[in-house]
Specification:
mainly alpha
Length: 180
């Protein structure tokens, strides 16, 4: 347990930076369609046209650079996590008695390790950043709708609540079917 706390303390700055980069990249990704629509709306205005196309290009370049940095940090952090897990698993395996090794073959143990660790790696590199990005997008959409029209905002909130209730009911219903 002490090793995990020390490890997490050593990577907390990278985790925070990744979270900030996810928010920045999501903001830029959401701003690109808006800037492009402004460019199209002001196509015949010579000054406004160049203003919005320059903003669009700058936002695109920044999105590319921040995405590159985010992907690099996520890959690096995921590699550190999975290697830490490998080392900890190996320490625990080496402490097992001989009966354990008669029960499981070496190839089975290696396969279990690699399958589990590859699932953790995929989860860290794909699911967690996507989850935070989606939360940020939903928050921005709710704020945007709230600023544009209270009726759209209320409709969206009712939709979210109904969606949540229906998903809960669906999961409960399917859970009962799996158990039977």
């Amino acid at each position: 347990m002490l090793g995990e706390k020390k490890f997490l303390k050593s990577v907390i700055a990278i985790i925070s930076l990744i979270f900030i980069l996810v928010l920045i990249n999501t903001f830029f990704r959401m701003s690109l369609p808006y800037l492009l629509s402004k460019f199209i709306d002001n196509f015949y205005s010579s000054y406004e046209k160049y203003k919005y196309i320059n903003q669009f290009l700058i936002a695109s370049i920044l999105l590319f650079l921040f995405s590159l940095l985010q992907k690099y940090l996520i890959e690096n952090l995921s590699w550190k996590f999975t290697n830490h897990i490998r080392v900890e698993l190996l320490k625990k395996i080496l402490k097992q008695n001989n009966d354990f090794f008669f029960k499981y073959s070496h190839s089975d143990l290696l396969e279990y390790f690699e399958v589990d660790i590859s699932k953790i790696y995929k989860f860290l590199t794909k699911s967690i950043p996507t989850f935070f990005s989606n939360i940020f997008i939903i928050t921005l959409v709710i704020v945007f709708f709230g600023l544009k029209s209270i009726y759209i905002f209320l409709f969206f909130l009712v939709y979210l609540v109904l969606n949540f209730i229906l998903v809960k009911m669906y999961r409960k219903n399917n859970k009962n079917k799996v158990i039977e």
